[in-house]
């Protein structure tokens, strides 16, 4: 099930506003957008019209978007030779120490006979897909990009070309071009 889309500045015909105690419930006509229970307070809520609530909501959404756009996000990558993951005792799970994980996907041929699913290796520790998904789940609500690189180039960002795969063969190109020094 995909995560709901983030609420956006809306017009009166794009949302339905209902009230429940201290909350104004903002429900978008587009069912893929998250419904929000906005805690306003019973007295303040009773004094506001739906139009005033929508204006208040839209001002909050616009302020949040302005703040988000003003932020400069820099991903942290743990240096080579330092542990990229650590075990979080209270959560009983492994967690990333930074925002980048260098890992190797191991093929079926490399899987020990007692393990029934493929896994990835990070810093020499093997994770099942379930363990790996639990680990990256600590970033729930974020986005994720995956760049596949040769196993000896995990520490380098690959050149990136945005295009469709080769239309003639229907196959993806996996050529390895090395620069000559």
Keywords:
181 residues, alpha+beta, 2 domains, three-stranded antiparallel beta sheet, 3 helices, 8 strands, 19% strand, disordered C terminus
Q: What does this protein look like?
A:
This protein is an alpha+beta fold. Mean pLDDT is 85; it is low at 176-181. It starts with 14 loop residues before the first strand and ends in a 45-residue tail after the last helix. The radius of gyration is 23 Å and the shape is elongated. The strands form three sheets. Strands 1-2-3 form a three-stranded antiparallel beta sheet, with helices on one face. Strands 6-7-8 form a three-stranded antiparallel beta sheet. Strands 4-5 form a two-stranded antiparallel ribbon. It has two domains: 12-70, no CATH class; 85-153, no CATH class. It has three helices and eight strands; from the N terminus they run βββααβββββα.
What share of residues is helical? 10-25%
Please give the alpha-carbon distance between the first and last residues.
48 Å
Q: Estimate the strand proportion.
A: 15-25%
Radius of gyration, Cα only, in angstroms? 23 Å
Reading the helices and strands in chain order gives: EEEHHEEEEEH
**What structural class is derived from the secondary structure elements?**
alpha+beta
The low-pLDDT segments are 176-181
Strand arrangement in the largest pleated sheet: 1-2-3
* Main sheet characteristics: 3 strands, antiparallel
Number of H/I helices: 3
The whole-number mean of residue pLDDT values reads 85
How many discrete structural domains? Answer: 2
Oligomerization status of the protein chains: single chain
Shape: elongated
